[in-house]
Here is the input.
Amino acid sequence: MTEKHKAIEKLQISKGVSISIYNDCISINIEGMSKLAFVDYSEDMLEIIRNARFRVPRTPETRTKYKYPYSNEYGKTLHQIVFDFYFSEEKRTELYAQKYIIEHLDNDGFNCRISNLYFLKDIKNTYKGWHLDKISKESMPIVAMKIYHIFENKTFQIVLFFNQSFVNKSTLNYLQTVKLLYEYNYEIVLQDAEQILESIVNTGEIKFDQWRKLYRYNDVRKTYFPKIELTEEEKQQGFGTLIWRDGKPLLLVGMDENSIGLVNSVPYDVDWDVEQ
Here is the structure.
């Protein structure tokens, strides 16, 4: 870990607002909020954040619900600050004029890392909220899906984590993750993501030979759960607890009437390019 990436605890930047830095992330703690806001770390971004005093205003639409961190100094929301940093304010203004919005891919208005931000037509964002976001939440006990925008190499990734057993019949291995790499077209990614989720949930099957014909990803990577025999004591543990193998913690994934141990997301793969 380099010196500039060491954790900084409660670096006060204004009354009621502090930040911490760890590795490639800046977390912003706004007094009165039950969660942190996040942006990607860089020296330039750190300077921007240090010069902002964030608050989370109520709006007529949300009434008492807090939605987006806002800076009076910049006259922008946090996600607008981040978008302008990567794409330019001129680009955002042009998009707004064409009825695009800046979307949080995971619908968390406090997650303003660039991997969670992109632009989408307002009407398509509304449809996404009606359908894809809904089925993503409902399918969590079976499979968790997250979409990432990778700004560095202009790609997207759909990342699936399986909370329910899907076995590879030829090897008898259980799928853990499937990661799909896409070119820089968010609308195609959304269309495929919706169809992939519906197919998995409705059929209970994954046929990768058909996926290549049906979906438009450029590459795929799969991982499998390690083969582990549980001890009698471990079998009594509830889902969501840890077991240890070779000094490493492993999560018991699944759910029952007494306990829940669902994974809702895993990171994307870095340095994975369409041209590789």
Q: What stands out?
A: DSSP finds eight helices and 18 strands in the chain.
